[in-house]
């Protein structure tokens, strides 16, 4: 399995494209609010997009996802709790498939497990794929997602951070913004994760 990453959109969102090198089947995680660069990368790599997955429904993560759906025919997945978010945060985004905690997605051989990690939004999720953790705006290198926007909750964020910290072993963490990190490094050095574990 191969991974390519792009930083795109109005708030420098990390978009991740996972794909099988042999079949060119792909999933796109958080395509942002500007699909132009994402579509160009998909076409340059000759990929067949099987699904578009959102870690949450804020416009900077999925606002332009419908354009990729239209171009590729891929379904759009997000957690149903984010339907409660105000439209100014989602730009009226709608999706066709709901995600659920513990769900395993098998998309033409690409297997991802869904972890519901509310806190930044009610429907925030992370995706586990092998030794990779796609953390959206739940966990950043040295920080975590903000909880002061509508639907945010520090109590839920704290519980979600504890859940990630309790995962067995180590993972390469790919956040929604900023640099990649590892779960081991965040257990040692991230003050928000440590605060969540202590409370």
Q: Helix share of residues?
A: 25-40%
For the secondary structure, the number of strands is 14
Stated plainly, the CATH topology is called Metallo-beta-lactamase, Chain A
Please work out how many helical segments DSSP would assign: 7
Q: What does the overall shape look like?
A: globular
Low-pLDDT ranges: none
Mean pLDDT: 95
Main pleated-sheet profile = 6 strands, mixed
The SSE string, one letter per element, is: EEEHEHHEHEEEEEEEHEEHH
Q: For the terminal residues, how far apart are their CA atoms?
A: 38 Å
User: What structural class do helix, strand and pairing data support?
Assistant: alpha/beta
Question: Taking strands numbered 1, 2, ... along the chain, how are they ordered across the largest sheet?
Answer: 1-2-3-4-5-6
Instruction: Estimate the strand proportion.
Output: 25-35%
CATH-defined superfamily? Ribonuclease Z/Hydroxyacylglutathione hydrolase-like
Number of separate domains: 1
- Regarding CATH, which class? Alpha Beta
At CATH level 2, the architecture is 4-Layer Sandwich
Radius of gyration over C-alpha positions, nearest whole angstrom: 16 Å
Structure description:
- The protein has 199 residues and is α/β, with parallel strands linked by helices.
- It contains 7 helices and 14 strands.
- The strands form 3 sheets. Strands 1-2-3-4-5-6 form a 6-stranded mixed beta sheet, covered by helices on one side. A 6-stranded mixed beta sheet has the order 7-8-9-10-13-14. The chain has a two-stranded antiparallel sheet with strand order 11-12.
């Amino acid at each position: 399995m191969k991974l390519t990453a792009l930083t795109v959109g109005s708030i420098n969102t990390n978009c991740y494209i996972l794909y099988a090198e042999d079949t060119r089947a792909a999933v796109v995680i958080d395509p942002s609010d500007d699909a132009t660069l994402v579509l160009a990368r998909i076409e340059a790599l000759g990929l067949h997009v099987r699904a578009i997955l959102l870690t949450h429904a804020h416009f900077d993560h999925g606002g332009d996802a419908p354009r990729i759906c239209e171009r590729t025919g891929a379904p759009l997945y997000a957690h149903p709790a984010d339907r409660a978010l105000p439209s100014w945060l989602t730009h009226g985004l709608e999706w066709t498939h709901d995600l659920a905690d513990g769900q395993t997605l098998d998309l033409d051989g690409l297997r991802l497990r869904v972890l519901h990690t509310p806190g930044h939004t009610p429907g925030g999720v992370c995706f586990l794929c092998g030794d990779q953790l796609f953390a959206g705006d739940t966990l950043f290198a040295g920080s975590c997602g903000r909880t002061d926007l509508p639907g945010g909750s520090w109590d839920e964020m704290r519980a979600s951070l504890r859940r990630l910290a309790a995962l067995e072993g180590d993972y390469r963490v790919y956040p929604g913004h900023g640099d990649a990190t590892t779960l081991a490094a965040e257990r040692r050095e991230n003050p928000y994760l440590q605060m969540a574990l202590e409370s």
